[in-house]
Task: inverse folding
């Protein structure tokens, strides 16, 4: 069973808030400024280019891949 944090008197399952980027309503929008910045930081560390024209969902998936490659994040 997942650990549950108590937030404002409610039990919250942190895994419940995690959605697949393909299921995001805004996934086809441009990446956020924070995503762009972090993506460039990770790509620089990994020595890889950042593709142009990524969507918010694509940027999220690429961030996950680069975090795994660089050992950052999770």
Result:
């Amino acid at each position: 069973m997942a650990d549950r944090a108590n937030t404002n008197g409610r039990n919250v399952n942190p895994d419940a808030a995690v959605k697949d980027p393909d299921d995001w309503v805004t996934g086809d929008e441009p990446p956020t400024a924070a995503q762009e910045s972090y993506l460039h930081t990770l790509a620089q560390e990994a020595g890889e280019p950042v593709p142009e024209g990524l969507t918010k969902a694509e940027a999220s998936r690429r961030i996950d891949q680069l975090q795994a490659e660089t050992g950052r994040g999770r």
User: Anything to note?
Assistant: The longest strand covers residues 5-7. Residues 31 and 59 are 6 Å apart (CA to CA).
